[in-house]
Amino acid sequence: MGKLYPLHERRTKNPAETTGNRYEIEILMSRTQKLKGLVTASLKLRTLNDNPYSIQMKTLIRIIILCLVSFIYVGCAPEPINPNIPVGLLTKSRDYLFFCISLMDTAKPLYNQIATKYYYAMFSVARVASIWKHQHFHGELETHKDVWDVAHHDARNIFGEDLKEVRTKCDYQYDINNSESEQIKKELQPIVLDDNAFNKLLDDANAAIEKYYKSNRCSSNHMNECIGIMKEISKYRDAVKSKFTI
């Protein structure tokens, strides 16, 4: 084996140099350092894996990720629909029409009150379709303009404009004499007799009710209840209509 320095030269007090074994010792030291480095790295890795604080941190990170995923999923999920909203609106419409019939059966019908009740009967039906189109499933407030803007144009023209104008004039009339009452009746007559506008209003409501319940997989009981109330609305509306044809 070759020597790095001649034996007769003394450069340092290092025994490796004086004995001529410096080369062999350096190789051994290099190997030892490599082994020591591997052992140290292995110990560090085991320390990281076995550290209880590290394990707790990993568990916490997993929990946070699960919470974030759940939050994102809930945020993207469709809003739950209250199945009682359409039932309540249609019930109001039916009751308003029944009140119109009761008023018209009196000796001197107050057509200012009839105009107001008939308007809100049509408005309640229109709201069923408006809630679906605006996705207002939690009782959000809707203006009259919001509701009529998404209604069929025939219903919007007759009820959202003509009837609303008559109703606005009647809102401030409490003591009304017979001549003024007859004038309001004349204005109401073409509105009440308009079958096309009324049918378009019902068609919109029926389509919204079908989407309303099927999209949320609600019980069919609510949908059947709505269909039953719609039939009563048509019947009561026919009764009001008959009063204007006499």
Topology, pairings included?
Layout: H1 15-19, H2 22-50, H3 52-76, H4 84-104, H5 111-134, H6 144-149, H7 153-170, H8 178-192, H9 195-215, H10 220-244
Your description of this structure?
The chain has 10 helices and no strands. The chain has 246 residues and is an all-alpha fold. The chain is elongated. The relative contact order is 0.10.
The first-to-last residue Cα distance is 132 Å
The residue ranges in which pLDDT falls below 50 over 5 or more consecutive positions are 43-49, 73-78
Helix proportion range = over 70%
Average predicted confidence as pLDDT: 76
Task: Report the principal-axis shape.
Answer: elongated
Write a compact overview of the structure shown.
The protein has ten helices and no strands.
